[in-house]
Design brief:
With 195 residues, the protein is α/β, with parallel strands linked by helices. The protein has a domain of 132 residues: P-loop containing nucleotide triphosphate hydrolases (Rossmann fold, 3-Layer(aba) Sandwich). 22% of the residues lie in helices and 26% in strands. The protein is built from 5 helices and 12 strands. It has a 6-stranded parallel beta sheet, sandwiched between helices. A two-stranded antiparallel sheet has the order 3-4. Helix 2 packs parallel to helix 3. The protein starts with 14 loop residues before the first strand and ends with a helix.
Length: 195
């Protein structure tokens, strides 16, 4: 993947970068890579993740490939604004777990001259756009769509297959509950099981 950025730190302006895709597609891994590079450049970096996501750690963002970076666990979007005053680069993982107010937070931070990098699911387990990611994609200067590998056929996967018939939109889990699927192999569990 080749990135084309005009510069690594905003020059009298900020911007928003969105890394979106299905589960197991490397979103958090890419977020960690970008944030580590910002740290190497001696930029003041802050990383946030929602309190709902404690699958691997309460003090780090962690990819499914076991890469990690220290982060701050937050319960609301307001905390991100309050804590980001001195940061130049802000990373937000699992952005789909925040309310739509996170869109305003990202805009405010970018308007303050900060580089804002968010990662999240762009579709839910039914293949429906997962707010607030579609809105963030619309306002972002840079967009990266990550793909996984379909566990059924090996094609590029852009869908998250839930392995349970629960109809709740948000169930936090990992390989125990989800796997990557392509368009052809993806199905909605309740339809498959006739519920």
């Amino acid at each position: 993947m080749t990135e084309i950025f005009p510069h690594s730190i905003p020059n009298e302006t900020g911007w928003i970068e969105v890394i979106a895709g299905c589960m197991f597609s490397g979103k958090t891994e890419e977020l960690i890579r970008r944030l580590r590079r910002a740290k190497i450049a001696k930029q003041n970096v802050l990383v946030f993740k929602p309190k709902i996501d404690t699958r691997y750690s309460e003090t780090e963002i962690v990819s499914h490939s076991d890469q990690s970076l220290p982060s701050i666990l937050v319960t609301s979007h307001e905390e991100i604004l309050e804590l980001s005053k001195d940061a130049k680069v802000i990373g937000i993982d699992e952005v789909q777990f925040f309310s739509n107010e996170i869109i305003d937070v990202c805009n405010i931070l970018a308007n303050q001259g900060k580089r804002v990098i968010v990662a999240g699911l762009d579709q839910d387990y039914k293949g429906i756009p997962f707010e607030p990611v579609p809105q963030l994609l619309a306002i972002a200067e840079y967009i990266t769509k990550t793909l996984a590998i379909c566990v059924e056929c090996g094609n590029p996967a852009d869908r998250t297959q839930r392995k349970t018939a629960s109809k709740e939109r948000v169930i936090v889990g990992a390989a125990d509950l989800y796997e990557a699927r392509c368009r052809k192999c993806h199905y909605i569990p309740s339809e498959e099981y006739g519920e």
